[in-house]
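Internal tracking record. Fields below are filled automatically when a chain is submitted to the structure queue. Please do not edit lines marked as system-generated. If the sequence contains nonstandard residues, flag them in the REMARKS field before resubmitting.
Queue: standard
Priority: normal
Entity type: single polypeptide chain
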Amino acid sequence: MRIVYKITGLMLTLGLMFALNVTAQTYPNKPIKVIVPYPPGGGTDVLTRLLTTQLLAANGETFFIDNRPGGDATIGAALAAKSAPDGYTLLAVSGVPFVINQLVFSKLPYKILEDFEPVGLFASGPLVLVVHSSFPANTGKELIELLKNNPDKYSYAGSDQFTYLTMEMILNSTGTKMTHVPYKGVGPSLNDVAGGHIPIMLSSLAPAIPFIQGKRVKALLVTSATRTPALPDVPTVAESIIPGYDVNAWYGVFAPKGTPSQVVMQLSQSINKATEGADIRKNLANLGTVTVRAEPEPFRNFLRAELEKWRAVVKATNIPVQ
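SYSTEM-GENERATED OUTPUT FOLLOWS
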């Protein structure tokens, strides 16, 4: 009986190894779905579409975007976590809110490091603080002065936990207050700021730049340590109101836990190859972002560091766990 068990176990192991090898050799043989947990038109959506277009051009791989907004981006993430781990469903996220959600929502149906395979990073860039075109403040200093002179008068749109927490850091550091109004994505909140329904918001650069260039909103500040070439005349938070301030968004791709390691590595290498192209680098630069890269294991280590970094921020700003 022991011999039978050993032979059966060996056959199962060899069968699994063969199946994984065949999967890696034939993958992909159909289009790959990329879940974006935000509405169309937001920063993650815009940047992911650039990436998938470049992946098609560079590697011949076909991807399609499945926008699943809602629940502070947790609905789409939960759907991705429960998807078949076969490499044909991926998740593209704005990474900081993905991390913050893990820290402020106590009943999430997934855990980042336990339910996902990190595939790769592909872009990074600052947020931009924008106001309605008729808003009385034209600089960061004028905004802070206005808020101090009119406590609790103004409200701001928050498209996710990242923009909410980042704005709260600015308000806490300057001794000012505003009312937070939650939105389901950057696109709807930008439209409402441009339409005068709400005066202020923090946005990723990619979707905000057309609004800024079209003078539908005014850009007052960017959150990076240095000015972005995409908006060279817009000062940083650090040089204007809070010395040392430096916050950037990053964008990454994940697969469901259990996706074969060969497939994860193949995807990671494809992303790295795609982001080396001059066209995507130029397009990303025009949207205020730069290409970044990290293969699965360095990406996992980066995630651990991000969780600890933002855990400290959540604690320091007294953001309640929900």
